[in-house]
Amino acid sequence: MKFTAQRIALIGLTIATFIGASYYLVNRAENPRASAQCTTGSAQVCAEAPASVPSREALALLDTLRVAGRAPKTGYSREEFGPAWSDDVSVPGGHNKCDTRNDILQRDLTEVTFKDNSKCVVATGTLNDPYTGKTIHFVRGPKTSDDVQIDHVIALSDAWQKGAQQLSADRRRDLANDPLNLQAVDGPTNQSKSDSDAATWLPPNKGYRCAYLTRQIQVKVTYTLWVTQAEKDVMARELSTCP
Fold first, then answer.
1. What is the pLDDT of residues 31-89, one digit of tens each?
2. Where are the chain's structural domains?
3. Which of 14, 27, 84, 213 is most buried as measured by Cβ atoms within 10 A of its Cβ?
4. What SS3 class is residue 73?
5. How far apart are CA 198 and CA 16, in angstroms?
6. What DSSP character marks residue 48?
7. How far is 38 from 214, CA to CA, in rounded Å?
8. CB neighbours (10 Å) of residue 98?
């Protein structure tokens, strides 16, 4: 087997993930919904939050990514990534008959209640928003559901211009529903991000930027996406200041 620089770095990232497991388990213990979801049996999918990875490992992985300009946006549509919030095939355990949006709400919110005593549709919950640091009380409804939105950490239209259009339809669907690429966040802040990359938008909460950029890099490696030079420069600058 030929070991490319990217493969070697990915192996290093896997090792680092195990090293960071204790930190991750502490975070899970503080999120009762995440812990409960992973023990409810086959009716649920364990949509776990990503483990903490040291910034030095993220920087090493960043250096393995291809640097190139944006490809044309020609041909992009949301449908190129499959039905919105389709049952999350990329989560360990496969289909659970619950759409991806509700899976991520269950993972990221605390004090969750369900609509009509179901085990899928989230009715209420509390979000400690990583993008702003605010506490948001989520209530499902026509005028309130958008208070909490599910952000694609790598926006799909941005991914399309950086390699996703070369992926298979199934692989693009995985990208759109991968828990690593999804985060429940403050709705207006998500709208302000739109399809920006790291060169033009970072979370207002500076304390979350290290984790945010690390996740972006992990997603790009997993799905063979590239970065622009401006994007890489911002990622490297921010990660170099991380603990």
1. 333 433 333 332 333 455 566 677 889 999 999 999 999 999 999 999 999 999 987 55
2. 5-239
3. 213
4. coil
5. 23
6. P
7. 24
8. 22
* pTM score: 0.80
- State the DSSP H helix or E strand holding residue 139, giving kind and residue range, or none if neither: strand 135-139
Q: Which of 183, 241, 231 is nearest to 210 (CA)?
A: 241
Q: State whether residue 79 is helix, strand or coil.
A: helix
Report the alpha-carbon distance of residue 176 to residue 168 in Å, rounded: 13
DSSP state of 49: P
Q: How confident is the model at residue 4 (pLDDT cuts 50, 70, 90)?
A: low
Q: Which residues contact 203 (CB under 8 A, 6 or more apart)?
A: 130, 131, 132, 189, 209, 212
Sign of the alpha-carbon dihedral angle for 113, 209, 196, 193 = positive
* d(C-alpha 201, C-alpha 193), whole Å: 6
Confidence at residue 26, expressed as pLDDT on a 0 to 100 scale = 30
- Separation of alpha carbons 132 and 56, rounded Å: 25
Tokens encoding 213: 């950029």
Nearest to 190 by CA among 106, 107, 131: 131
